[in-house]
Amino acid sequence: MDSIPQPIGGFERAVNRFKSSVPKALSDQFAKDTNTLSSLQDAIRSIQKEQGEGGSLRNMPRLSKFVEAMSQLGQVIEVFVNANDFVCFIWGPMKFLLGIAKTHLDTFDKLLNIYSQIGDTIPGLLEYKSTFETRPTLMIVLHDYYSDILRFHELALKVFTRPRWKDLVSAVWKTFESSFGPIIQSLQSRRELLESEKLSASLSDIQTILHGINQIQQQQASIMYEEANEKHRLRIARIKEKLKAPDYFMDQEISTENRKGAEAGQWITANPIFQAWNDKISHGHSVLYLNGIPGAGKTTLVSSIVERLLHSINPGVNLASYSVAYFYYKHGNIDKNTHNASLRAILEQLIDQDTLSSQELLREVLSQAEVNVRSTKSLEALTLRALEQRQLSFLVLDGLDECAIGEAEATIRWLLSLINEKLDPNSSRLRVIVSGQRNGVLDHFLSSQRTISLESSEHVDDIREYCRHQCARIKTKFNISSALEESIITKVMEAAKGMFLYARVVLENLLHQTRLSGLKREIKADVFPAGINFAYERVVSRVIHDASQAEREDAERVLSLIITAKRDLKWTEIQSFFCIDPGNGLVEYDDKLLLDAKQLCGSLVDRHSLEYSDSKKPCVIRIVHETARGYLIQRGIIQESLENARMLSFCARYLASSAFQITPKSNTVTRFATQGYYSLLDYTVQYWYDHLEALAATNVAVGDVLEDPVKQTKDFLARYTPRHDLKKVDFSVLDLQQLLAKIPQDSHDRAAFLDIENRTSWIRQEIENLSGLTEDEKRITTELYGVSVEYKCHKPWCSRFADGFATFV
């Protein structure tokens, strides 16, 4: 026997779904008793009067069929439930939408047309009232009708509740209108069911019919959703190519990995100041200044905040969701230490998270020349536009104290201009976190903002928990007593003084000891480090001074590469620097390092796995902290100018080698590719110029150090373009400046000037088509190229030039 569906159940499910798709304030507004048919009719008459007096009267009778159909729906369901509890979610949104759209006549007309179409598809339900009363099993038909109308209003509200919907609606109307197609067809199918002779069928047969109707609607909606997402992905790809934003995702991934446990940083969510900043209901803008001493763990804490914000985004519910964008500034990294770089990263994230506004912003981006769209003025304007499209946006900026001179001030001034002048808090609220050291600049501009300092007891507890975790590993490795374990925790906590970095460096150094006697020596009072520089000194003593000559030389070279490189280096790239001989165009595979970076350099470096979860996963090697970089340079362990000159020399010789001749034959490319020779193509093509600029900016004396890289650069440029007249250039600092002046500064223009794209694209195509490799060749290419990347952008100025789209083979 067929079971009778509960009359109220289907209506409640539809209402609950609708409520979850809109902000609570709006759902509460719709639920009010005042949202009746009478109040809607009053609103319609008011709009008619207003438009009539203004000479812009529209054909409002187009609403009559929809209003009548919904009125009859309410009368029919009144037999089973309290209709007022449910029809208010029809009259309320309708009144709201008409009230918003009335001032934009073209859109208002289109909205009236859609209501008219829906009204045409719904039969006179009162004709079937007696049928519904005698056959309550047919209540599911009314459930579906009601659900479809709420779904229509949900889609409409996603556009019309946005802060700048008038600017947006013209760009997205076709997509917006097409999303109603499945709903219209579903309503039509239900009408055909009611008008047919199938109402006498059993409940199970009717349920089967309705299930088929709903399934078709879901399939159509799914197809449209995928098509919209695919168009969005294509738009984002074009926008990314224009913006050339630095890699922000990897910084978040690495910082998250550094937390060494999900519990780290949770204390901040209970902090009243943070809770007030994070309150998504409260009105107005808000800035939170997060500060602490160098190495306190600000970046690690920021990563936990970003992770929580990103996890709380619901991409399927545009009204209830919000935008989250973040950026990690990096000292000395030319791609990540400027206001302009952060704008490009923020703008890319804001557009990527919003399928609707991406259409409008793509048109704006494509209308500008590539150089113009990346100007700071243009980026600020576009970012403001993107922020205005959302009701709430979170920006999290870490390490502003690591910016180049003047850049932190430019960023702060721009943020404050948004909050104080440009962004209307009534329509688009902005929440900002700025994290950095108290260096005077940040304090000056942010003194009046909410502040959290990493000197709290909760932060100290985080450090203590980390110490316990690491000391448990030390206890297991060396089989020490619990008393000694507690003694080490106490020593580290007393010396750390709130510095997470100190605890990491010291405890990792203890873990790297190979004998119990070594551990005991390191914790003696006269040896145990009293501060971070002393902690670095203990690590340097172990990995350089006390190491064998071979290990010392390899450690110093790895550190030199990491410190001198203009971006993070993958471990495969570091291996390639050891193996490739650009002077002879050879790969000496026997020069591959057999120890990894952590074994060679200890806690001076961090090894970060990226993206994948199996043994082939790529990893990036980073210096553990900027203070470690400063220590190594100040102590003369790494001579930055000398190493930069060596790096430039390598890049120039590498790109001038026979593997990069103008039109290399396929077998030539294959020969070099199977050796792993092209594993440094990505880095050298993108960053040789940056090393030349860095060398020109130093006061290196004329001599062998300067002469070699300049000679090599001259030869490289002469091979890549016949337009350079370098014959008269002498080797001096002045001549180096002259050499630099001949080369375009913009990466796009520079690539065209040197015709470097044609060479790299030809080589890339040959590499992508490699096949029939021997086992030895597969092993070599895997260890020097890393995870296979089949498709990379051939444009050297593109962010996808180096990373591409990874696929496993």
UniProtKB/TrEMBL annotation:
Keywords: Repeat. Residues 286-443 form the NACHT domain. SUPFAM superfamilies: P-loop containing nucleoside triphosphate hydrolases. Gene3D superfamilies: P-loop containing nucleotide triphosphate hydrolases. Signal peptide: none annotated. The keyword Repeat applies. InterPro entries: DUF7708, NACHT_NTPase, NPHP3-like_N, P-loop_NTPase. This is Vegetative incompatibility protein HET-E-1. It comes from Colletotrichum siamense (Anthracnose fungus).
